[in-house]
Automatic annotation (TrEMBL):
<dbReference type="InterPro" id="IPR015915">
    <property type="entry name" value="Kelch-typ_b-propeller"/>
</dbReference>
<dbReference type="InterPro" id="IPR036047">
    <property type="entry name" value="F-box-like_dom_sf"/>
</dbReference>
<dbReference type="Pfam" id="PF01344">
    <property type="entry name" value="Kelch_1"/>
</dbReference>
<feature type="domain" description="F-box">
    <location>
        <begin position="17"/>
        <end position="48"/>
    </location>
</feature>
<dbReference type="InterPro" id="IPR006652">
    <property type="entry name" value="Kelch_1"/>
</dbReference>
<dbReference type="Pfam" id="PF00646">
    <property type="entry name" value="F-box"/>
</dbReference>
<dbReference type="InterPro" id="IPR001810">
    <property type="entry name" value="F-box_dom"/>
</dbReference>
<protein>
    <recommendedName>
        <fullName>F-box domain-containing protein</fullName>
    </recommendedName>
</protein>
Amino acid sequence: MAISGSREGKSVCSIFPGLPDDLARLCLAFVPLCHHGRLRVICKAWRAAYSSRFLLNIRSQWRKTEEFLCIFRDDPSVTGGEVFDPRCDAWRLLPLMPCDPSTHSLSNFRCAAAGTDIFVIGGSLFDSRNYPIDKPLASSAVFKCDPFRGVWERLSNMRIPRGSFACGVSNEFIIVAGGGSRHIIFPSEGDRVSTVEKYDIKNNEWHLVEGLRSIRAGCVGFLYRDEFWVMGGYGGSRTIAGVLPADEHYRDGEILNLKTGTWRYLQPMWKEGERRQLGMVAVIDTGESTGIFMLEGYTIFRYYIDTAFFLLAYGSMVIVV
């Protein structure tokens, strides 16, 4: 426990009695993350230690990393996100994301995790100050959450508002491509873009890079080594029986070489009529082999780079992260 005393008229507070604070912080940092919340209430010194990022930096230096699953089921400003710790089989709620009182019903945003932070990027929403109020607008807002301290921070806006876009993330940057202002309530409304932006996490800055060759909204994206893959999506639209609007979904994709800044074409990944759009995609790259998996409903598919096709994956072949 912490102790308080007097030294030359000043209050002294140590983390562990008789132990240097540097060594005491190292001890606290090595405690599994699932116990940090309960240890905060021991004393003021421990609460201060666990409320700072210093202990997380120590864990990073010593490679004491732990993996968590974070899920946002709805608008993060209305329904708090949830974090799952597989070691203790427990869920924990995140605080609500800050919001503008004039906006509501955020959807089609993208989430990304870099280091110990969670990012909520863009999306589609309604703004009561806009006319007509039933038309969805794209958002350029970016928020960052520290799930261990329970603190949200507003970051620099994207240069182009967008929702339903492709997103890739590393520890140094986040890259987004395509998207628009599509909304789940009014799917036929909204604009679509082909622009691409890259976010410098350290400097909190967005920069435009070479855009997509075609307009793509509703696409998925991921980083694979030194490349940013943008797959599927939709661009133009058509009408059924001249009345009902329907999207023209793409079967191909585009790949950005992050070193040269150039795009190349990705040939169609499935045959005409096999599926309309891509599900969630996860990449597992061990260095020796690579697996690109897609969840579509209750079925998992694997993408084979050599054949450029998504095929049904069976049993032990599948690892989902």
